Amino acid sequence: MDRTGAGHSEWPQFTRGSDVVEALNRMGRDTDLPDVLQRAGYDGMIHPLDENDEVRHYHIVNPDQVLPIVAPAGPTQGVQSAKGIYPQYHPYQELFDTTIAKAQRGDPENAMLNLQHVNSGGVLNLVAEHIGDLSHRMTEDTTARNGGYEFVKPKVERMLKIMTNPYGFGKEMYENIRSNAPYLKTTYEDLRSKVHQAMSDYADAHSRLPVYNEVQKLARDSAIHLGNKEPGKVIDNLYQLRKYLDEGEEAWANRAHEYDPQIAHEDTMSRLAKEG
């Protein structure tokens, strides 16, 4: 019998858990495993199953499943309670990090850099970079604890301030293109056409990123709308994101960690239709 009073044969079926240990190893904090797991929001007990092995196997037992985790040998600090105030490593983190955060650093990031290069400089360069980065910040491993709250909130607030400036985002963008044209030894019309194409490429690259919940969709679509020259829709999305962010860090984390099967399915079908 283990410390929960249940024999091993009574444990639920094993399922793959969040990759807590790998993340800690990358940070050189593998000895912090028990404390980190305790703060990670798992409702159950941590069990050292074989203290004689070179590695120690921990299982987090809760009423629904057993999450197997392997860690380097080290002090267990006893059996730890694993109740936490938020899910530091939520069940979908690996999916989000792989298919959104890391993917955003591919074609969408390259499209943003190309847009900045073509445009040379100005308000569009700043907005394209930070709006495009929202998807990455809310889904990457290093911000898994709270959905990137401390990064996403100031970006959204800053981008809203720029996009709603009374001077006019579009007016400033095209004035930048006009002033950049002589420096690039081209005409305003030619540079505007090239910028429009780069914006379209930017939108297309972001449209291929998947989304699994509402806030991911709002962030991803903000970049698409920017590339499609739809500043009003960008502003609407940013206002909605700010509304959710203003609910506080814990509420934001819950939204950012959500997996909505309807949104995921509709997005998948939409992207497949575009790909033909």
Short structural summary:
The protein has 276 residues and is mainly alpha-helical. It contains twelve helices and three strands. Helix 5 (123-137) packs antiparallel against helix 9 (214-227).
Query: Which structural class best describes the helix and strand composition?
Result: mainly alpha
Distance between the termini: 57 Å
Question: For the CA atoms, what is the radius of gyration?
Answer: 23 Å
Q: What general form does the structure show?
A: globular
Question: Strand fraction band?
Answer: 5-15%
Number of strands: 3
Report on this structure:
With 276 residues, the protein is mainly alpha-helical. The chain has two domains: 65 residues, no CATH class; 183 residues, no CATH class. A three-stranded antiparallel sheet has the order 1-2-3. β2 and β3 form a beta hairpin. The longest helix has 20 residues. The N terminus is likely disordered.
Strand and helix layout:
Layout: H1 20-26, H2 33-39, E1 45-48, E2 55-61, E3 66-72, H3 93-104, H4 107-119, H5 123-137, H6 149-163, H7 169-183, H8 188-207, H9 214-227, H10 231-245, H11 249-257, H12 261-275
Antiparallel strand pairs: 1-2, 2-3
Helix pairs in contact: 3-5, 4-5, 4-8, 5-6, 5-9, 6-10, 7-8, 8-9, 9-10
Characteristics:
mainly alpha, disordered N terminus
